[in-house]
Amino acid sequence: MVAVPRIRMEQTMTDLQRILDHLNTCVLLVDRRHVIHYLNAAAETLLGVSRNQIAGRTISELLRDPCELASIIDRALDTWQPYARRELSLQSIGSTEDLIVDCAVSPFEDQSDSATVLLEITDATQHQRISRETALINQVGGSRLMVRQLAHEIKNPLGGLRGAAQLLERQLNDASMREYTSIIISEADRLKALVDSLLGPGHAPHKEQINVHELLQHVRQLLMADAPDILIDRDYDPSLPMLELDRNQLIQAILNIGRNAVQAMQGMQNTGRLIIRTRALTGVSIGTRRHRLVASIQFEDNGPGVPEHLQDTLFYPFVTGRAEGTGLGLAIAQDLVSRHGGLIEFESRPGRTVFTLLLPFDSNDAADVHKTT
After folding, report:
1. Is 309 exposed, middle or buried (0-12, 13-18, 19+ CB in 10 A)?
2. What's the CATH code of the domain at 44?
3. 53 exposed, middle or buried (CB, 10 Å; 0-12, 13-18, 19+)?
4. How many independent structural domains does the chain possess?
5. What is the pLDDT of residues 122-165, one digit of tens each?
């Protein structure tokens, strides 16, 4: 038997590690005691740890809840057969977000106590996000017809409301009281314009250059009047450029999202908190369209969260978790945002719910994801 020179063996191992580091798939080598002997560069990036930090430690020191992954490793070693699991939820100690991954485990060395498995992990988060967004976009089409029918029913009493406010205004001598009737009339006019746009056959929004923070300040004042016991904080990105938006449509959309949040926190006197946050995001996909620059408007609350059984159908009309709710606010908001080429998505668990409005800066700058990937 010809002995392999040590220097050549070391070079071979270096070349092998270089090859593994160029893979997009995460690769880990784990033994029967769940000790990690190796992880490649892709695994470092996905899990947010360095190999020097984690090599020689167990997966329980890498993941916050390793039980499911550990059971797959044990099964592969006990049966000496490869196993695979799709859409496994993991949370690394190096990240605050849950990872959705596809996982494959294959026995790698002999069946002794020192046996190891080759663990391959592929990030499925983006695929799941696209699937979720596609479902949300499909809900828009299913609810738009019903929203238009309801808008038609609203239009007539809205005209009567405005007329009554005008008659009342003429009877009032106190100028301070006439301010209230002016608010009623202006809000009725805004709602009439909104209803007219909902009744139109998919009319394009009447866009103008708007500072979105001005609209958010207007909505924040309305929300503070509705829920004085809820703390409403602002976390604005001052560098956010002007946006081409339909003022009335966007006010209604963000007002519906904000009211949905404060209503979810009813009963949380002096403990309920809503954060309105803005950011500019780059390279964001909305459905099958990828946008170079997107405005993100978030409403984050610390309420009880969206019930799990409602999460898949939340943007359909009449879907609500409140006995007094109509289930129309979110459906209308999603419809209005979709007319700007955007999307509303959410994540929710008890104590933290975040609704995110994604609005492209320029829909003409979008590219088809399937053509660019």
Report:
1. exposed
2. 3.30.450.20
3. middle
4. 2
5. 887 666 666 666 666 666 655 665 666 666 667 778 888 888 88
